[in-house]
Amino acid sequence: MSVQVWTWILVGVTFALYFGIAIWARAGSTKEFYVAGGGVSPLANGMATAADWMSAASFISMAGLISFMGYDGSVFLMGWTGGYVLLALLLAPYLRKFGKFTVPDFIGDRYYSNTARTVAVICALIVSFTYVAGQMRGVGIVFSQFLQVDITLGVIIGMTVVLIFAFLGGMKGITYTQVAQYCVLIFAFMVPAFFISIQMTGNVIPQLGMGGTVEDGTFLLDKLDALHTQLGFNEYTDGSKSTWDVFAITLALMVGTAGLPHVIVRFFTVPKVKDARKSAGYALLLIAILYTTAPAIAVFARTNLIETVSNTEYKEIPEWFKNWENTGLIAWSDKNGDGKIQYVAGSAIEGKKPVYIDVRGKYGERTISNPNAEANELYVDRDIMVLANPEIANLPNWVIALVAAGGIAAALSTAAGLLLVISTSISHDLIKKQLKPNISDKGELMWARGAIVVAIIIAGLFGIYPPGFVAAVVALAFGLAAASFFPAIILGIFDKRMNRQGAVAGMIVGITLMLYYMIVYKTGLIGVMDPRPASEWWFGTSPEGFGTVAMLVNVVVSVVVSRMTPPPPQHVQEIVENIRIPSGAGEAQSH
């Protein structure tokens, strides 16, 4: 059977499974809608948390980034895994004991202020919409390539699927759907890794294969370093980023992880505080399976790409290349007219939006304003590396289709969690807690479902008009979370003197500073201003790492303002003292 038939079969089966779970797990109350009734087992919650956490950025884009960045890509591995450890050990048990299942709810009660709650709601919406943009782009890429549908239609299909299981089941439906999605995505990620590791190194374990030898006895990484050097790239195992920027990006991803509202809420779906700790441990083990495999897939994909494409006559290029050209995510421009693809260091095209054209005999070329500007003739979107990897390695069609199903599962699982955060921020933290405190349970549920519909339409627009590489966009979301939430949460737990004035001032300054830096140095203002060059970065800090600077400014502002204003009420200080006392924690129930 063809790849497309296999894809329709596997995607159809997985979608039927998701819909069945959504119908089975319909939410009948706000508690079920928001926190799945608080009755999920630690193992199931660990699997759901892992699926929620491992988004399209982890599944589709992270290995692609590492394959192009080499050593520099390790910041994503260190930041995202380290951040989860930070969240599991430093924040989750305390937040679970506090008993508030949304970040704005925690901030509103801890800082005894609806102003603080409102600022937190705004921050949650900004972070979640930035994050979900990457997920919807991932959905669009997978659908457009593997199901041969227009990218807009692909995003609409993905939106519809998420809407059904999020609208019906809320957190209850999402939790059990994510358990299934974890099984799908991890199987889809690992199977091609096993195949390619055996094919290239003879070792079935990808992590060991990455450090193993190829047919001629050369170590695989040494071979890749040599290929890179020949083509004018830095050695794959040698980094080009400054030590400070590596540190800044890693820390921003770590503390951003610890401030992500859609991950934090997962620790309220289990019955007890000790169950929250157990589910965090399970999730960490389940996440590690993918994260330790991603560098190996990056090495395999990069080596295969170079050997398959570099200096090859276009008429001899494998079918996978021409298939992916149809999406515009890989392209060739024959600058020297020799009919061969010259893949060397440098940009293949000029301008942010290269024109995609169809020229007889040179299908998929991209036009450039100055053909002699640089020698590189190959344009590759990093987001295709994991998805195209099985095709590059000539794996069976069912494996290629399996990866497509896994990519969709990864994107949809996180998109659902983010949409629920957006929904609860509006219905619970804004409507219930501030505008309509006497609203009925049924009325609040109606607002929650209405908010999901609006949120998914906005998320779909992000998928149709994508802002950039999936992982790059997601990294900015982590920076926003680091700049806004993390100081307010960590100081709220460990600093009794922290008051509402300090928290509000810190969050506003932190997220404003991060948004300004993102716009000026990453996205620019469309039609008005292009992003400023790296030579103008503050302190040599990339936009992905600037969350660290904004977070530190937030901490300083929060502490200084809190010390210059009255301390919090005594009962708030007692609450803070109580959540740090472990005695009886095992029996603590949510309020």
Classify the oligomer. single chain
Query: How many domains comprise the coordinates?
Result: 2
**Proportion in β-strands:** under 5%
- Poorly predicted tracts of residues: 350-373, 585-591
Tally the beta strands: 4
Would you identify the CATH architecture of the largest domain?
Orthogonal Bundle
Supply the CATH class of the largest domain. Answer: Mainly Alpha
Strand order of the largest sheet: 1-3
Percent in helix: 55-70%
Structural Rg: 24 Å
SSE-based structural type = mainly alpha
| DSSP helical segment count | 21
Largest sheet: 2 strands, antiparallel
Query: Shape from CA axes?
Result: globular
Question: What is this structure, in a nutshell?
Answer:
This protein has 591 residues and is mainly α. The protein has 21 helices and 4 strands.
Question: Could you explain how this protein is built, in words?
Answer:
- The protein is mostly helical.
- It has two domains: 381 residues, Orthogonal Bundle (Hydantoin permease), CATH 1.10.4160; 51 residues, no CATH class.
- It is built from 21 helices and four strands.
- The strands form two sheets. A two-stranded antiparallel sheet has the order 1-3. A two-stranded antiparallel ribbon has the order 2-4.
- α4 crosses α18.
- The longest helix has 51 residues.
- It is globular, with a radius of gyration of 24 Å.
- The termini are far apart.
- 56% of the residues are buried.
Record the SSE blueprint:
Layout: H1 3-24, H2 30-35, H3 42-53, H4 56-69, H5 74-98, H6 103-110, H7 114-146, H8 151-201, H9 206-210, H10 220-231, H11 243-258, H12 261-264, H13 273-309, E1 312-313, H14 319-325, E2 330-332, E3 340-341, E4 378-380, H15 385-392, H16 397-435, H17 441-464, H18 470-494, H19 500-523, H20 546-564, H21 570-579
Antiparallel strand pairs: 1-3, 2-4
Helix pairs in contact: 1-8, 1-16, 3-8, 3-13, 4-7, 4-13, 4-16, 4-18, 5-11, 5-13, 6-7, 6-18, 7-8, 7-16, 7-17, 7-18, 7-19, 8-13, 8-16, 8-17, 10-13, 11-18, 11-20, 13-15, 15-16, 16-17, 18-19, 18-20, 19-20
